[in-house]
Amino acid sequence: MTDLFTAPARSQADPSRSGPRSGRRAQRRRRRNRRGRALVVLLVALVLVGGSGYAIWTNLDTLTGLSNPLESKDFPGPGGDQVDVEIPNGATGTVMGQELYDAGVVASVSAFTAAFEANPDSVSIRPGTHAMLEEMPARDAVALLVKNEMVDLQLTIPEGYTVAQIVDRAVQVTGLPAEDFEAALDAPKEIGLPKQAGGDVEGWLNPGTYTLKPDKDSAVGLLTQMVDRTEKSLRDKNIPGGDWEDVLTKASLVEREGLHPEDKPKIARAIENRLEDGMILQIDAAVAYGAGKPGTELTRKDLNNAKNRYNTYQHTGLPPGPIASPGETSIDAVLNPTPGDWKYWITVNLDTGETKFSETYEQHLAYQQELRDWQAANG
Fold it and tell me: What pTM does this model have?
């Protein structure tokens, strides 16, 4: 800005009270000249600002996808290659338009929002991954979204996940409400949970990959698939129904304790040997599950807490049930443990997961020292 707009006005004498008439005429001329110069400066400023503003305004569509009111760019159609677009939960028409514009589906956000507002069925558009086409007319894009023909989703559940972790991942991938999963878990009969589970779903949600149709699948349907897969696996392995819960419990312990597949049959054997000798299992993963915290955060107080029913330092035998969903290799390890007299195992290298097994407590103490030496050397 110039001083013209910011400088304070000079103090002037009242022309009606002093000075000759010619002086007053001179003052009026000076004021007119100043007003003229001010007008010229103002016009120049408006031209400069207006030019920049016009440049920004005319390029606004390129920068953001939001067209100016005079023109809403639109593709003529009919559309090109398929492109998958994620519509967020609770998205407005403008948010949808921006997602589609960013993906190259529509030519401008404003063209889409106009078509969105003109289609009364647009309120039925559901969140999720929609199969769209590149360079579609906005009206066609809205019409396709309204069909809610979602792209199939792939949900992968890793081995060793707990029910809580499985639900978290399912909600994240499918967009289904967490409340739907909680309600399904509270009604185990609806998801086909066998009576052998005693009403507890833990360990019965089979890990693996599931193909889902978000517009058709539900929390009940997904959990039912997981339970069915577990039951089928147990039946295919010819495991008697009365042993299902124990097998899954042992397999879940093996799953959480064994990093490498070749170690799992040995861990399964060591567990069987300890159970046969009436020894406590002393499995940290079980204690951590019952305490509701990671195994790395266990304290001496946690290990001494007999109120934790999963505390295998305080209670003999197996914990009340599975502590996670075991994979096939862990179940097979329980069914076919490696022959041996091991009763102890310990990971001596936390980087590689190298695990050593021993038959005596003295040898186990030596391996404990090996672990401490590794920790000291690796910080």
Answer: 0.68
Average pLDDT for residues 281-303, to the nearest whole number? 95
Closest to 250 (Cα-Cα) out of 226, 229, 236, 234: 234
161 contact partners, CB below 8 Å, separation of at least 6 = 169, 205, 207, 324, 325
Superfamily of domain 82-146: Endolytic murein transglycosylase (3.30.1490.480)
Nearest-angstrom CA–CA distance, 28 and 34: 10
CB atoms within 10 A of CB 78: 10
Lookup result for tokens 């003052």: 27
Nearest-angstrom CA–CA distance, 213 and 148: 11
Distance separating alpha carbons of residues 8 and 148, to the nearest angstrom = 65
Q: How many CB atoms lie within 10 A of CB 132?
A: 24
Residue 178, Cβ neighbours under 10 Å: how many? 13
Q: Which amino acid is at 372?
A: R
CB atoms within 10 A of CB 263: 21
Query: Which uninterrupted H or E stretch holds 153?
Result: strand 153-157
User: pLDDT, tens digit, for every residue of 315-334?
Assistant: 999 999 999 999 999 999 99
CA distance 289 to 74: 56
Distance, in Å, from the CA atom of 368 to the CA atom of 267, rounded to the nearest integer, reads: 17
Query: How far apart, in whole angstroms, are the C-alpha atoms of residue 307 and residue 314?
Result: 9
Extract the tokens encoding 363. 């040898």
What are the domain boundaries of the chain?
Answer: 82-146, 153-236, 245-342
Q: How many residues does the chain have?
A: 379
